[in-house]
Amino acid sequence: MKKRTWALALALAVACTTTGCGSRQHRQLEQLGVISAVGYDRSDRENIIGTVVIPNFTETGKEKIDVLTGKGGSSKELRFALSRMSERKLVSGQIRVVLYGEKMARGGILPYSDTLFRDVEIGSQNYLAVTEGKSVDFFTKRYPDKPSVDIYLYRMLRKEMEQNTIPHTNLHHFLHDVYDHGSDPVLPYLRMGKEDIIVDGVAVFRDDVMVGRLDPDETRYLAYLYGGNALGEVDVTLPEKTRNGQPAHAVVMYMKVKRDVQISKVQGKPKILLHYDIDGAVTEYSGDADLEEPQKVKKLETVIGKNMEDSMRAVALKLQNEFLSDPLGLIEMYRSKGYVSKLSNELGESLYKQAKLDVKVDMHILQTGMIH
C-alpha cells in the first residue's frame, strides 16, 4: 500500500511539472519584463533620459522587443518612471549592454555605472560603449537582417574584443580603472551606419569623463601599445614602387607583441621608454624585392618597424598631450618603482604631463605569404 501511495505521489508530481506547475511558472515569467540593454542620455543640466530594451514574445512565438524611454534626475527616478510604462515587473538580471550618449559621457558616467554595479541582479561582465549622438536612437532604429538590437550589439562588441581590434573592457574593468587610479578607461565608440551599427574606434576617458576619441586605426595601435597578441592587420605603404609605378604595400598579420617598459627618473621627471619586440607574418607584398633573400627581408623589417614605431608613438603622445589620459597605467608603473611614495590624482596628472615618453619597435618577420 505504501508503494502504491508513493507511486501516486510521484505521478502527481510529474503531472504538475509537465502541466499545471509548468504553466504557472510560464505565467510568472510572462509577468516579468527582463531588461537586456540600457541606454543613458543627457536631457538637460538636471535630468537624464533612460532607455531600456525588453525582449518580448508574441502569441505565435516570434520575438519582438519593447523599448521604453523615461526621464528623471537619478537612476532611482528613472526606474520608477520606466516601471509605470510597463504592465510587467521590470527586472535587470539579464542586462548585456549599456550605452552612453556622447554628451552624457563627456559629463561623467560614474554615478550610473556605479548604480549598475551595486545592483545585485546585474553581473559585472556586461559591455559598456559610448555612442555618437543619443543612445536611444541606436535602440529605436531598425536593422534589417540583424537579430534584436540587444543581441546584435552584444555579439558585435564581443567579436571586436576577441579579435583585439578594441581593448577588452566591461563594467568591472571600467570601475576598476576609475576607482584604483592605476589607469584610465577606454570604451568602444559606436556610430550609426545606414542599416547597421559601426564600431568606430574608442572613447578615451580621464577617470569617468570622456575627453576624446581614437579612430579605428589609432585604436589598433593602442592595442599594440598594451602588448600581447594582436590579431588585426597592418597595411604599410613602402618607399618603393610596384611595376606599374604605384606605391608598394605590405600587409602584416598574426602579430605577437612583447613589451618592455623602461622607467627612470631624470631631473625629477619620469622618463618612460616603451620597447616592443613584434613578431609577425607578411601575408601580402606588392613590391619587387625577393623575400627569399634574408637581406631583403631585413630591409623590409626595418621599414615596417619604423612605420609601426611612428604610429604607436603618435598614439601614445596624443593620449598624453591632447587628452591627458593614461590608459596604459604608466604613472602607476612609475610609482611602483618607488619614485613617489603616495600618488594623488593631482600629482599623477602633473607627473604624466611632464613625463618624457618614447616608443621603440623592433620588428621580426617570421613568415612571408602572398606576393604580388
TrEMBL record:
Residues 26-191 form the Spore germination protein N-terminal domain. Its main location: membrane. It is a lipid-anchor. It is found in: Membrane. Pfam families: Spore_GerAC, Spore_GerAC_N. Belongs to the GerABKC lipoprotein family. This is Uncharacterized protein. It comes from Tumebacillus flagellatus. The lineage of its organism: Bacteria, Bacillati, Bacillota, Bacilli, Bacillales.
